């Protein structure tokens, strides 16, 4: 390159500084190298093809027929896009390809297949470069991978990943893992030294240790478990025993050679034709004949499953020197040689057939919700294992399955059904609250109704229908194209309503309510108004006035319509017979003013009467109807002259004193008048005397014979015979409906009754108001009883007693009534439950092994044992066999496989035996012990006797060696009983009710309290403190103690008091009634309502009082009492008085006096008045009339008036006073506005016969005056004010429903089959939660009681015996253990006590679940001087291999080991290798290991250091290595801190990268890491390390052994902790250098301007980032 190199941007100018030139040249070379690297090999093209991602697979069909495209464009090496023509068209990638179009239904066909995770690979092994050295603390991070691919489920063939990714993201291919650190072997401390192996001479002492944790994950191997030490107890006084007999192992069992082979051998030995023919056969021949006979008999009895062949086995007996070498047998001390040949059973392995075909799946229907089924396959035994042969594998194999195929029917589904609700009953609700009220009649309101809930198969008919179709298909009766006919579907619909009940446990899901609140409408009583006044005497029928008989009637109205119509009301009309009836009469309305005759000013005159024509009901009618009666003429009257006496007008007639008249009682009424002015002394008309001021007349003169019609109750609604043919078509209607089916009639009795007498002839009563005796009614539909079909018969489980006799049981079935009959429907069947005896099987199901007699004892063949001592006799140890067969419990033959399944373990078929020799003593077996007359009294004996030639042998008569009788004391069994455990819950005596399997219903009154019993278990021990059956202590297993469950007592209130009087006499007030507390609730009784401070609860309701109920009645004014002195004139100022009384107002007027406070005091008339009595010739006016009403609105511009008229004109010259008076209208004084006022709602009012349920809230409407006073409603009604309020609304008083519980379930099985702590439980559930103020549910929903204590029997092994090698010192022998029966209390404490084996006879022969019983095993008794392996140690405690604190575990393990024991120093080279074995375990402890040090007692010695486990156990192995271990002994105390070591100066120092932190005593406390800046060298591969550790700054920075490369460490901080100055300088220089380098790279690598091409302007390349090549998917 020259100095004037030109680029696209122009020419770089020449620089004067030579250093800059070198830098620029270097940069340009780098840039040019980058360009050259991106070019092709020929250096010509700088363009290449770029592709985008593939688009979505498109296509019309699902599957492999889709296509997808992608963008393809040409790009420059610098990254910008160019034309396609610049790139090589031959290398252009494809922009379209075929693909698999995924649809939603592919989800069921494809899925991800996940491979297994590979082994965990360290992360360091996956990085480049050499692995780093590190100290393992807990574990090393690693990564494990797996293969994941998309497959087709049907054949697991691979598919494109894109198919599965459409539905679910691809599962991860890698995951982090942890590689555990190597775990060194950890061993325990040494045991104490053993005693010396010799009593004299030179021997060995041993001490051993055991393995606690095996070496894992490449940890260090276990050290020696044995340490030897020579010992010399003393010199030997005589020769040491140098030789001993060693017995070898028995050879494998083999069959003796056949007879033919032996004869060939014998002929070879004796020569041909030298056979001796003697009459007496040799012992071998006799034995062969006997053996053949035995074999024939065996073959007759043997089962084909056993092939028992008796063979023989031998062993060697060698004389051994102490050094282990074999020597001549004669060197060993002469003694009886052990047996070297014995009979044995030739081992045969178990042989089975091949697996049979799988059975059909136990699940035969289709339902993904229900659990899957199982299918099984089995194989048969061809040959049972004999001798030491391999045991049989499992004979059955089971796997889960689902039914396959198209025709699998759906599974049966079950659902809850209910019967109809029972009638609503209030008494069941009342009895929960107050039993005294439950027998009341006419109850209404809220009640309870119940129903039964039962379980049915929901799709039974559907399955039956499908099954029928399948059967028809099989028979070829139905074409497959034919549609199912309608009738089966109809039958399904019908049968669903009356399905067969099944067991309740088959139904799942919530149980429907079995009780609910209901409402009995309370009848509304008829309310009538008071009687009206008697009407006039009228004809019974005004249209027929021929009869002379008439009636006076009085009536009353219905104010509250009753339930059932007005027919339930009392009579509304009463009649009294009368004479001179008339239908129409004149009624006086008023009298006009008195007019004097002959136009005089005063004197007599007449008054015209204003009348109207009225009918008998007082209604105005046409005047012509009264034409038959004479009208009232003018009434004579008198106008007083100026000097006459002036009288007031007569008052109205008072109320009649009687409602009727009799001979002794007459009705009277009275009227009065008063003197207004006295006459003049002379010439004037005199005032009458006082008697003339009052008039009396008779009234209600009719007799007291009152008649009325009386009605009886309506009868039953019966069919109307006249309309039965018309309505017959209506009676056919689907059952169960409550609607009317036809029209019927009801009748009632109507009689005429005379009051206080009784029934009289109907003619006495008027016909007009006679009630009807017949009415139409609606007949309810008949409802037949509906019952379910009978359920299936209950199961008959077969139970057998000890003798194999099946117990008799019963089975039952029932049906439920789901609709009760009503309205004359068909009655229910009487038989709802059936019972029958179960079929008792002839034989109880069960199998047992039957053993046959032991065969003759078989000895080793004579030709094999003829060289042994005593070979001439056929005696010695042998083997005998027996046959075993399978029987049913009744003794009949059964297949052997049945006993393998259901019987106990098979009895032994071989046993050792002994044929007595001639010198042996033969005795019978021991007899049974004689019986004891009583426990603890006397002795019992057993005997045996000598048999055969033994009777004559002297040695056999030695009773010391061969006792013929044994005596022992009679057993003294003493038992004591004592209680154990806690007292149970208090349990009430159980009734006869048992929770039914079919149907659930609300039980009646279940006794929940009262006297019960609680139980405590009794335990019985014998004199050896062993647990025995409680019957031994004459106990039934419990102590009973009476207890009391307190009954809940509800809150008790008194009855309601009477209603108080309405608080207002006019308008709306309130009335109150109350209850008071009689008894508080306790023991969970029903709570009280909210009470006040005096324990009362009130009910306040509004009430209305008629404002005219009580009225003031004023008597006439008294005579004037003149107070001036002008007595002659008898006029002037004076006073008048009168009586004013408060009286009860009735329809006939005021009747009787009442207390004055009942009348409105504001309305009380004046009782006295002062005025001027007119003098003679003065003008006299009558009393003022009433004020006129003020017109509304009330303003003072309006006036009200009152007037009077002249009774006596004045004389000449005198004037009358004003006859009119007025006053302004003033609001709330004499003028009032009126409006309605509505009261608050009352509390919910129930019928008197209801306790809860629907009621009514009421409120009252008042007419209120503008001053706030309630007045009569007529004032508001006259104004026609709007009434827009609803006065009554319905309401509900919540019914207090007590909590209803189910029956107690049956007692559960005992929680333990034996022992002291067994418990039985029973539960109940809430059927109906409490509502309102009902009694809450009790908290005890389950109860327990102890189970009877039963001893826990089990089979257990005794300890292994010592290794027995007969009478020889050493060699291969046998050790034994016994199987015994033990008893315990089930608590797990202790091993239990041994008892008679008969008590375990019912148990399976197994020890801790292991059925393989091993009572003997081979063992080795070491010979003197032999080096041998000890027995296995016990299993160590379970240890968890874990990372402490990280919560990471690698499983738990336990280990056992065998150490070596040596006896002779010379034989140490012959010792076997030590051994250990491990096994996984569960729940191990996570331990830590640490170094522990302590000074010896002697301060001059070095300190002790050992490794200790976190549970305090001293161990070897497991602790971290001490670095360096050689020099650590020179430091005191030793350097035990992590990252520490002992220096040459004897002080503890920290490793490189850590600094020392000293304690207050100057000793090393810890090694802390030093944060430094690490500059990696070229050879260092750790350029991305973020946290580093420095070497010890006090050490020289030479390369340590095992360290690669070199690292410089620059300390950026000074001793004062501040940054050093050079750090700032380096940072500034680095920043400037970085800016310069970036600028140069930009200039050197900048794109040159492209040359202008000779094209038109619009053909220039546009700076696009992506060129469009015509593909549709861009």
Summarize the structure.
The protein is mainly beta.
Quote the average pLDDT: 78
Rg from Cα: 63 Å
Number of strands: 108
Instruction: Count the DSSP helices.
Output: 13
Distance between the termini: 45 Å
Largest sheet, spatial ordering of strands: 21-20-18-90-93
Percent of residues in beta strands? 25-35%
Low-confidence stretches: 1-38, 128-132, 270-280, 477-496, 725-737, 1524-1529, 1572-1609, 1651-1674
User: Largest sheet, described in full?
Assistant: 5 strands, mixed
Find the structural class using helix and strand composition: mainly beta
Helix content: under 10%
Q: Which overall shape is indicated by the principal axes computed on the Cα atoms?
A: elongated
Layout of secondary structure:
Layout: E1 6-7, E2 10-11, H1 18-38, E3 47-51, E4 63-69, E5 72-76, E6 81-82, E7 96-101, E8 110-114, E9 121-122, H2 123-126, E10 139-145, E11 148-152, E12 157-159, H3 161-167, E13 174-180, E14 186-187, E15 201-208, E16 211-213, E17 226-234, E18 243-247, H4 259-270, H5 283-301, E19 310-314, E20 317-321, E21 326-327, E22 341-345, E23 351-352, E24 373-378, E25 381-383, E26 396-401, E27 414-418, H6 427-433, E28 445-450, E29 452-457, H7 460-475, H8 486-497, E30 501-502, E31 515-520, E32 527-528, E33 538-539, E34 550-555, E35 558-560, E36 573-578, E37 584-591, E38 595-596, E39 603-607, E40 609-615, E41 635-639, E42 646-647, E43 667-672, E44 675-677, E45 694-699, E46 707-711, E47 718-719, H9 724-727, E48 740-747, E49 750-754, E50 758-760, E51 774-780, E52 786-787, E53 810-814, E54 817-819, E55 833-837, E56 847-851, H10 862-865, E57 876-881, E58 884-888, H11 896-902, E59 910-915, E60 939-943, E61 965-969, E62 976-980, E63 1000-1001, E64 1010-1021, E65 1027-1028, E66 1038-1045, E67 1052-1053, E68 1067-1079, E69 1096-1105, ...
Parallel strand pairs: 18-90, 95-99
Antiparallel strand pairs: 1-2, 3-5, 4-7, 5-6, 8-11, 9-10, 10-13, 11-12, 14-16, 15-17, 18-20, 19-22, 20-21, 23-25, 24-26, 27-29, 28-31, 29-30, 29-63, 32-35, 33-34, 34-36, 37-40, 38-39, 39-41, 42-44, 43-45, 46-49, 47-48, 48-51, 49-50, 52-54, 53-55, 56-58, 57-59, 60-61, 62-64, 64-65, 64-66, 67-68, ...
């Amino acid at each position: 390159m020259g100095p004037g190199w030109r680029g696209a941007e122009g020419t770089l100018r020449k620089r004067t500084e030579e250093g800059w030139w070198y830098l620029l040249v270097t940069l340009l070379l780098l840039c040019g190298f980058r360009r050259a690297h991106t070019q092709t090999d020929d250096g010509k093209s700088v363009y290449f093809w770029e592709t985008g991602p593939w688009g979505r697979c498109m296509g019309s069909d699902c599957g492999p027929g889709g296509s997808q495209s992608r963008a393809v464009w040409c790009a420059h090496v610098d990254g910008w896009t160019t034309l396609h023509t610049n790139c090589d068209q031959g290398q252009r990638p494809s922009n379209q390809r075929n693909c698999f179009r995924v649809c939603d239904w592919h989800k069921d066909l494809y899925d991800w297949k996940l491979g297994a995770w590979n082994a965990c690979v360290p992360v360091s092994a996956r990085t480049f470069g050499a692995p780093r050295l590190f100290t393992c603390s807990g574990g090393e991070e690693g990564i494990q991978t797996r293969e994941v691919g998309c497959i087709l489920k049907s054949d697991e063939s691979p598919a494109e990943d894109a198919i599965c990714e459409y539905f679910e993201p691809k599962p991860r291919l890698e995951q982090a893992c942890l590689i555990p650190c190597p775990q060194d072997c950890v061993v325990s401390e040494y045991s104490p030294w053993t005693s010396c192996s010799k009593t004299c001479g030179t021997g060995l002492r041993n001490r051993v240790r055991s393995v606690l944790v095996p070496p894992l994950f490449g940890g260090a191997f276990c050290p020696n478990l044995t340490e030897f030490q020579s010992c010399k107890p003393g010199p030997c006084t005589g020769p040491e025993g140098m030789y001993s007999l060693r017995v070898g192992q028995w050879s494998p069992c083999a069959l003796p050679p056949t007879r033919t082979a032996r004869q060939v051998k014998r002929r070879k030995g004796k020569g041909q034709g030298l056979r001796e023919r003697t009459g007496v056969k040799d012992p071998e021949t006799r034995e062969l004949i006997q053996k053949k006979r035995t074999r024939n008999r065996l073959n007759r009895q043997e089962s084909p499953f056993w092939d028992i062949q008796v063979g023989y086995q031998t062993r060697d007996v060698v004389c051994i020197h102490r050094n282990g070498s074999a020597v001549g047998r004669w060197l060993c001390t002469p003694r009886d040689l052990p047996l070297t040949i014995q009979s044995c059973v030739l081992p045969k392995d178990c042989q089975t057939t091949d697996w049979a075909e799988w059975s059909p799946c136990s699940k035969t229907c289709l339902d993904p919700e229900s659990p899957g089924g199982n299918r099984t396959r089995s194989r048969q035994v061809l040959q049972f294992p004999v001798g030491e042969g391999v045991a049989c594998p499992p004979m059955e194999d089971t796997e889960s399955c689902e039914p396959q195929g198209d025709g699998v029917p759906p599974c049966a589904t079950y659902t809850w059904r209910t019967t109809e609700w029972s009638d609503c009953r209030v008494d069941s609700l009342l009895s929960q609250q107050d039993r005294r009220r439950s027998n009341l009649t006419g109850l209404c309101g809220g009640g309870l109704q119940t129903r039964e809930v039962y379980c049915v198969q929901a799709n039974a008919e559907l399955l039956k229908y499908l099954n029928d179709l399948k059967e028809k298909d099989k028979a070829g009766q139905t074409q497959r194209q034919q549609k199912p006919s309608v009738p089966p579907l109809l039958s399904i619909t019908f049968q669903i309503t009356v399905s067969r009940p099944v067991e309740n446990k088959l139904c799942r899901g919530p149980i429907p309510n079995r009780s609910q609140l209901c409402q009995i409408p309370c009848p509304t009583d008829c309310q009538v108004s008071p009687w009206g006044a008697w009407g006039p005497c009228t004809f019974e029928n005004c249209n027929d006035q021929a009869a002379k008989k008439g009636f006076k009637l009085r009536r009353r109205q219905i104010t509250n319509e009753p339930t059932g119509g007005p027919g339930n009301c009392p009579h509304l009309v009463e009649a009294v017979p009368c004479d001179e009836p008339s239908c129409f009469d004149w009624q006086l309305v008023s009298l006009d003013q008195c007019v004097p005759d002959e136009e005089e000013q005063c004197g007599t005159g007449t008054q015209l009467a204003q009348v109207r024509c009225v009918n008998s009901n007082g209604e105005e009618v046409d005047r012509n109807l009264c034409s038959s009666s004479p009208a009232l003429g003018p009434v004579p009257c008198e106008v007083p002259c100026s000097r006459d006496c002036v009288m007031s007008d007569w008052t109205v007639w008072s109320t009649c004193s009687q409602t009727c008249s009799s001979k002794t009682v007459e009705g009277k009424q009275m009227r009065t008048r008063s003197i207004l002015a006295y006459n003049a002394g002379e010439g004037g008309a005199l005032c009458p005397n006082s008697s003339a001021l009052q008039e009396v007349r008779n009234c209600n003169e009719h007799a007291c014979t009152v008649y009325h019609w009386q009605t009886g109750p309506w009868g039953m609604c019966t069919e109307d015979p006249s309309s039965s043919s018309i309505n017959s078509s209506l009676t056919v209607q689907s059952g169960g409906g409550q609607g009317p089916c036809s029209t019927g009639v009801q009748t009632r009795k109507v009689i005429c009754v005379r009051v206080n007498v009784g029934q009289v002839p109907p003619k006495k009563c008027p016909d007009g108001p006679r009630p009807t005796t017949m009415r139409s009614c609606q007949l309810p539909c008949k409802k037949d009883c509906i019952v379910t079909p009978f359920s299936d018969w209950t199961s008959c489980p077969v139970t057998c007693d000890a003798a194999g006799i099946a117990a008799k049981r019963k089975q039952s079935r029932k049906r439920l009534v789901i609709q009760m009959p009503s309205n004359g429907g068909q009655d229910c069947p009487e038989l709802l439950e059936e019972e029958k005896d179960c079929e008792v099987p002839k034989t109880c199901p069960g199998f047992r092994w039957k053993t046959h007699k032991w065969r003759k004892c078989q000895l080793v063949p004579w030709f094999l044992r003829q060289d042994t001592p005593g070979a001439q006799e056929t005696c010695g140890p042998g083997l005998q066999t027996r046959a075993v067969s399978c029987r049913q419990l009744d003794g009949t033959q059964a297949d052997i496989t049945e006993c393998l399944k259901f019987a106990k373990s098979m009895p032994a078929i071989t046993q050792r035996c002994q044929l007595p020799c001639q010198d042996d003593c033969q005795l019978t077996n021991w007899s049974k012990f004689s019986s004891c007359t009583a426990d603890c009294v006397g002795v019992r004996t057993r005997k045996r006797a000598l048999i055969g030639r033994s009777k004559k042998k002297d040695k056999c008569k030695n009773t010391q060696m061969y006792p013929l009788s044994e005596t022992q004391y009679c057993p003294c069994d003493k038992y004591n009983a004592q209680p154990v455990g806690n007292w149970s819950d208090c349990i009430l005596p159980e009734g006869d009710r048992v929770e039914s399997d079919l149907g659930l219903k609300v039980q009646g009154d279940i006794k929940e309290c009262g006297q019960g019993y609680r139980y405590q278990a009794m335990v019985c021990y014998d004199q050896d403190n062993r647990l025995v059956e409680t019957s031994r202590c004459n106990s039934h297993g419990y102590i009973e103690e009476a207890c009391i469950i307190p009954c809940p007592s509800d809150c008790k209130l008194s009855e309601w008091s009477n209603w108080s009087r309405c608080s207002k006499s006019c308008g709306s007030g309130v009335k109150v009634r109350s209850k008071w507390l009689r008894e508080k609730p306790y023991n969970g009784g029903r709570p009280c309502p909210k009470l006040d401070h005096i324990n009362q609860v009130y009910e306040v309701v509004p009430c209305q009082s008629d404002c005219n109920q009580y009225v003031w009645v004023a008597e006439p004014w008294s005579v004037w009492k003149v107070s001036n002195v002008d007595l002659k004139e008898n006029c002037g100022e004076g006073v008048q008085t009168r009586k004013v009384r408060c009286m009860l107002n009735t329809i006939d007027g005021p009747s009787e006096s009442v207390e004055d406070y009942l009348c409105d005091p504001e309305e009380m008339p004046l009782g006295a008045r002062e005025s001027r009595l007119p003098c003679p010739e003065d003008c006299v006016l009558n009393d003022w009339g009433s004020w006129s009403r003020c017109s509304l609105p009330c303003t003072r511009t309006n006036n009200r008036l009152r007037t009077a008229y002249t009774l006596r004109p004045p004389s000449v010259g005198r004037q009358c006073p004003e006859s009119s008076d007025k006053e302004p209208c003033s609001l709330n004084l004499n003028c009032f506005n009126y409006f309605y006022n509505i009261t608050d709602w009352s509390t919910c009012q129930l019928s008197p016969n209801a306790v809860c349920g629907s009621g009514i809230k009421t409120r009252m409407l008042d007419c209120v005056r503008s001053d706030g006073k309630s007045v009569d409603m007529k004032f508001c009604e006259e104004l026609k004010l709007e009434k827009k309020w609803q006065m009554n609304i319905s309401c509900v008083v919540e019914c207090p429903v007590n909590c209803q519980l189910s029956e107690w379930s049956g007692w559960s099985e005992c929680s333990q089959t034996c022992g002291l702590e067994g418990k039985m439980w029973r539960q109940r559930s809430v059927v109906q939660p409490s509502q309102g103020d009902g009694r809450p549910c009790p908290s005890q929903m389950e109860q327990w009681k102890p189970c009877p204590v039963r001893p826990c029997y089990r089979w257990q092994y005794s300890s292994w015996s010592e290794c027995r090698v007969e009478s020889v010192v050493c060699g291969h022998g046998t050790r034994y253990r016994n199987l015994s029966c033990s008893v315990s209390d089930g608590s797990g404490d202790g091993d239990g006590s041994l008892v008679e084996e008969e008590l375990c006879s019912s148990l399976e022969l197994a020890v801790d679940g292991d059925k393989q019983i091993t009572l003997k095993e081979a063992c080795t008794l070491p010979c003197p001087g032999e080096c041998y392996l000890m027995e296995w140690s016990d299993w160590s405690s379970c240890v968890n291999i874990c990372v402490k604190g990280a919560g990471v575990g690698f499983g738990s393990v336990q280990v056992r080991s065998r150490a070596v024991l040596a006896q002779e120093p010379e034989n140490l080279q012959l010792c076997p290798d030590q051994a250990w074995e491990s096994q996984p375990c569960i729940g191990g402890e996570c331990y830590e290991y640490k170094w522990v040090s302590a000074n010896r007692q002697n301060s001059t010695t070095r300190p002790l250091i050992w490794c200790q486990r976190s549970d305090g156990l001293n161990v070897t192995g497991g602790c971290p290595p001490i670095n360096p271990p050689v020099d650590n002994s020179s430091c005191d105390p030793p350097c035990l801190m992590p990252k520490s070591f002992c220096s040459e100066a004897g002080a503890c120092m920290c490793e490189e990268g850590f600094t020392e932190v000293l304690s207050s005593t100057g000793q090393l406390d810890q090694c802390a890491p030093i944060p430094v800046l690490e500059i990696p060298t070229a050879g260092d591969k750790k350029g991305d390390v973020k946290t580093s550790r420095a070497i010890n700054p006090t050490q020289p920075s030479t390369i340590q052994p095992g360290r690669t490369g070199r690292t410089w460490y620059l300390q950026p901080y000074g001793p004062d902790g501040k940054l050093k100055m050079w750090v700032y300088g380096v940072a500034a220089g680095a920043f400037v250098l970085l800016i310069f380098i970036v600028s140069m790279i930009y200039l050197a690598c900048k794109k040159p301007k492209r040359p202008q091409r000779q094209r038109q302007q619009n053909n220039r390349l546009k700076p696009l980032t992506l060129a469009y090549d015509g593909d549709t998917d861009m």
